[in-house]
Every structure is written in structure tokens, then in C-alpha cells.
Design goal:
mainly alpha
Amino acid sequence: MKLSEPHYIPTSKLNTPMHYTDFVKQTILRLLWVLAGASIALALALHVVRPADSTLLLASLGGSTLFLFGLTTFPPTQPRALFGGHLMSAFIGVICYQLFGDTTWVMTKTMHPPAGANPLIMISAHAGFVDIWTHVFAGVLVLALTTYLWSRLGIGQVRYPVNWNQKSPPTDQWGIWH
């Protein structure tokens, strides 16, 4: 079968056949738009939280930027999960540092940055509770606002947020434990 046959041709928003070259052009434009928006959001967030103090936040905010601009409609990108996840994990990291110092990683043998970058960042930075607001909240707020504005400026049909209070995960029945 050839790509030019009708069932291989993507459809537009109006469900009409779209030429393959138009589909490729639209996809490339969308990717460039997402790249530009994500770059601007991350640069602004790191600028707001003082880049000299926030090098470690790059991992956490960078991961969120990928979710916000690449997976805009997913439950983990909605404001409830975005703000709640960052602030709660940063709070946990500060508490662990305040109670146990740098030994938290050694005591728990749980150093796995992708599983929760903020607690590790808070421990590594010897952060206090004020850092949750001046670094984490400020960075996440800039990401959310930039995503909100960017999703209304140009290419694409999806507007952020899809649902301000969407739970993530949507139910308690997820993962291998249920």
C-alpha cells in the first residue's frame, strides 16, 4: 500500500483528507512552535528564580516543561498536579534535609532523580522552607503562565489548561498495586 492511498492520508480538524506534504508541514510547524514555547518558558522560569541559585531546578522544571508543551492535555500537566506535585515534593525535600541533613540519601538508599527531582534538589541545595516559594513555586508559576499564554498565541488546537482541578492519576486504581 502507498502513502497516497486514502486510508493513509491524515485528516484535518474538519475530518477532510489532508495531503501528506501538508501534514508534514503542519507537524514541523507544530514542533517548532512547541520548541520555541518550551524554551521561552524554561528560560523565563530559571530567570525568575535566579539562575545562579537554581541550577538544580533545571531537571525538575525542564521535565515539567516537556509535559506542559508536549503532553498538554494529560492529567499530570493540569494546574492541580503541576503546582501540587512540585510544592508537595519540595516541601518533603526540605523536611528531609531539616531532619536528617545530607544523610537522607544514604539512610534511605533512594537516590533516583527521575522519580522525584524536587526532594533531591531541596536536600542538595540545603534549602529552607522559603525556597519552596522563591524557587519552586515561582518557577512553576512562570511555566504555567507561559504555557497558558503560548497555547493561545498560535499553532495548535489545544488550550492549556484543559481542566484546572483535574486529579492525577484520575483514580486510585493505577500501577501494579491495584
